[in-house]
Structure formats: C-alpha cells, structure tokens
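pipeline/complex-builder :: batch 7 item 3
reading input block
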Amino acid sequence: MTTPTAIAQQSSEIGTAQSRTGAQAIIEALELHDVRFVFGYPGGAIMPIYDAMTGTDIKHILCRHEQGAALAADAYARVTGKLGVCMATSGPGATNLVTGIANAYMDSVPLVAITGQVARPLMGTDSFQEVDIFGITLPIVKHSFLVRDPADIPRVVAEAFQLAASGRPGPVLIDLPKDVTVATVAAQAVVPYPTQSDHGAALDAVAKAVELMQQAERPVLYVGGGVSIADAVAEFRRFANYTGFPIVATLKALGTVPSEHSQYLGMLGMHGSPAANDAVQKSDLLVCVGARFDDRATGRLDSFAPNAKVIHFDADPAEISKLRSADVALPGSLKANFQAIEQALPSLPDRHQSWLAYGRQQRAEKGWRYDAPGDFIYAPALLKRLSELGGDDLLLACDVGQHQMWVAQHCRFHHPRAHLTSGGLGTMGYGIPAGIGAKLAVPDKTVVTVTGDGSIMMNIQELATLKRYGIDLKIIVLDNSALGMVRQWQELFFEQNYSEVDLSDNPDFAQVARAFGIEAFSIKTRDDVEPALHRLLSSPGATLLHVPIDPNENVWPLVPPGKGNHEMMHQQEIA
Amino acid sequence: MTSQRKYALRMQITNIEGALIRALGLTERRGFKVLGVSFADHRGERKALELTVESERDVNVLQRQLEKLHDVFEVIVTNTEAPVMVPVAAGG
C-alpha cells in the first residue's frame, strides 16, 4: 500500500511537472501512485483521459460492463492490499459503477472510481449523459470530489488515494467534467496532504481491557474482516495464541486463523457453525476485533451473547457501540492495540482450558457431514474436495447465495485474502469480475470463481474479458435451476409459496462459455466430481465447469430471521 | 412506546460543494430526524453548522459518524433534552 509519506512526496513531484492537460495530469498522478491496472469502459465524457492513457505503463482492462470493472477493481484491491481503480464515462457509465462502489463501501475496500462528467457549462442542464454521480454516490463513498478547477487535479488525486487507503478504507469518487480534463494545467506546487497517525487506544482503556480478560471465565475472540484490512493477520494470530481464547470468525474473516487452528470454532452467525454460535451465546466476555456486529453475524441483537461484556477493537471509532454497547472501547490501530494489550497482560490464568475444551468438543460433535443421501452431486462435498486439491495455492472468489455459504462452511482458507466474497452488500454478479481482478493481482495463484446459476447471469458478459486478456480463471457453476437461497427461504418461511425463483429455463452454461471462446464441460454424477476437479485445475486457460445439483438442497444450519443465534435450525428438525 | 430524545449538535464543515448535504444525509439515514438547521453565511474555509435532531438512537454514535466525514470537524453535542415518549403505531 502506498504510504502517506510517499504520496506527499509524489504530490510534490506532480506539482513540479510541466504544463499539460487535466487528463494528462490524471494519468501522471495514477502512474506516480504506482497504479498498474485500471478497470474501465470508455465513453464520451471521459475520452480525454482514455486518450491520455495510451502509451503509458498503465494497463487498462476493458470490462464489458462498468459494474464488472468496479467489482474487478474491488477484488484487485482486496487481494493486493493496494488501491483498486475503476473508470467510466458520465451518465449510464457512472451509474453502472454504483453497485461496485457500494460493494467496496460495505466491505471497506480501498477503491478510487474516476468518472467523466459533462462539461461545466452543461452541468445542471440535463444534458446528454448527465447525471449527478457526485450526489448519487454520497451515501456510499468515504469521500468524493467534483473537480471544477483543473489546477486541483494533482491535489485531488493525492487526497483521494490517501483517503481511500487510510484508517478504515473505502471508495472515493473523482468526478471530472470533460472541459476540466482538456484544460491546461499549469505547473504548481502541491500542498502535501496531511498524514494520519497510526495510534492505538488510551492506556486506561487498555488497562480496563486487560482487567476484563483476566477476570473472564468464558471469553471468546470474535474476529472480523478489519484484521485483514489492517494487514494485521500475523499480529492477530500472535495475540490469539497469547490469550488462548476460543476464536470465532465472520464471513469476511475466514482464514484469519486456519480452520484447523486449535482455538478456532468456526464462523458465527446465520449459517455459522453450531459450536461457534454456542460459544458466543454462552460467553461472558466477547473480544470483538475488527468486526461490526452485523445482523447476519449476530442474529437477533438483543439476544446476542446476552451475558457477555464486550471489548471492541476497531480502526473506525464510529463502529464501537453502534449496535452493541462496548464495556471497553479500543479505537485506532489494531496492531498498536494488540501490542499494548500484550505488554500489559503478562499472563492469563489457566482456567480457560476447560472452556476451550468444551468448544472443541462441540466443534467435533457438531461438525459437517458429507454423506448426503440421494444421487445428486452434493455441493458441500465438491467444495470441500476443491479446497483440499487447491491447498494454500488456491484463491476462491464467490458470488452470492447458497453456494457462497457452502464455500464459507466447507472450504479451508489459509488467509482472508484467499477468500473473496461480497459480505456486506451481497452482490450477485461479484464472482466473475472478482476472479478477474484476483487473477490479475496474483497470476501465479490458482483462482477459482464459485458461482450459481442465478449469480453468473448477472455479469456473464465478463467471460469476454477473460477471453480478451487470456485470464486463466477457473469457474464452477453450481446449478440448481433456481434462485436457491430465496427458494430456501420461501420453503421455510413463506409456506412453500415459490415466487419467481424458478430458473429451469437457464441456458446451457457450457455452451454459453464456449461461445465466448472459453473451454467448458459439464458433469452429472458424483463419480464425475474427482476427475472433473482435476481436469478443471489442470486446464491451461480459463475453464468453466458446470455442475447440476439438487434443486431442493438447502444451506444448514440456519438461524431464522428475527431469531437469536441460540435458535439455529438444523436439517434433521424438518426432515 | 419508544423514547425519542432531542439533541443539538454544532460542527464545522468545509466550505466546499457537497459538505452540507453529506452531513445532513448521513444524519437522516442514521435515524435522526432533522428538526432544525442553522447554517452561518461564511466565506472562509469552514462554516459553522448547527443541527437540532430527534431520535431514539445514541447521539454519540451519530457524533462519531459525522466526525468520520472528511469535510466535517469538531462535532459537539451542545444540548440533550429529556426523552419524549412516543406511542408506536400498531404493528410497528
């Protein structure tokens, strides 16, 4: 990640450059910020920037829809820890970015979205392809800029990059009127953007946290995506080992500790592991680290961990006590706060051993089963095997729905950056663009997108992007001929009144892929799974594996909507 | 019955496009009804913004969320009134 100091230095360098157009100033600024890839789609108002980009070291990835561009940039950022950059023209180009921007906002991803805008004299006149993208995106950006003065471009880019990546990261929008990008930008001195300190919480809060940790009988570490975002995975692991507390993870935190870690009880929440939810519900101290008490994690909030005191670590002070009042607030740098706690906590009493043993026993007794009856290919078993075959070299991108939860439950992740999932927004259509961004970020890794027959259709046009750039992405389509998660809820909570979830008229996905020039094949039986996974993973280029699965298969266990995490439904209860 | 409280907040906002609507939009979206806005006519880099709001939610959370905005500074809760009990509509 580019450091604030480097940005400040680069800003000065920008300011000493010779006069050039606003568009050239944008491209120079991107180069100075070490932007290697820009994901985008050209159009009228942003043409000067595309003109200035030719012949530079920036690699532009032409996606086939602006949403695909934004989501690919999002995934690139998640995998690398660097900024993702996407670009689109005014009007529909800009509005097509909106879902991707919101996706980055909800999951705290550093993203810079650059949009063309109609020329300043036309703004506010409802001119062709004019929308107020600045106004449209106000609630889903960390910050935004509408650049009305070409001289502001270098400063705005430096500020945007700094803001997107600092503290709790998020998307920043830069809207550029066309006449601003063609105007001459005079050489100028740029005032460096002030850097932010990386401090932890106050010492009295640290002391109070230590006191609670020493007193607790049934403590649990509740880890969220903020740990990976803060690049603090190693520090968290050391902290977790030091405490010896049981660990539960959110969807975005999977891989923060490996699945086989002796303290790890699994994912908590709606489709979490019974052991994880049980431990949280019985805990007397919840040490929340980089998580935000999201409703999918907590279930009914007023019954979540009812007897627990809460210590809340978060880079974003506004998350602390937003939904669950914290007994001790530890805002600021996670790394600094881990260090402060460890220094102040010389040793913990040994009384947590029986509590941890209880959690392990629960995990062992209530583990997943893969001996599903019937003849259909069992998706959880296929995903588990995929994960085993891929090992630590595998990076998985998901779409949204049942398959997303099966991936979370049955795949092993060695690091949270190896699992790309749309956690907060739940964006169907994330999977293929995410796979594109990920594979470009780590070309030496095996990247597999797991998608469903509903989700793949949301951004299926990006198969053309795979073909165009020869991106070696593997795709598994788990096809239940339905919007499976919605169908499951209609079955369980809407008296089996199935409304608009039937997708039995899906196209032949293998044929569709071949039409895009992508190798593809289908399987039908359980015996086909093992050779198909080997074939998929050993194929030389982008390959799609189509897997029909049981249309009536559900994701288990499940915390019903409005219920507490102690009220999980299990498959056998309705069998 | 829900417990609504009135609060007064004072803050500085950067004198740039979008700063006011960003602060007001966040306030409403986060569950605070805006009862009054006072916005000083100021030509400097920053303007003073005063809000009177009402909500059953924690004003300190709103304060921290406003402070996160890049163009908002020095958010102070200046007044808190006693809760007003408001009947909840049937089914609400």
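note: The mean pLDDT of chain A is 93.
queue -> next item
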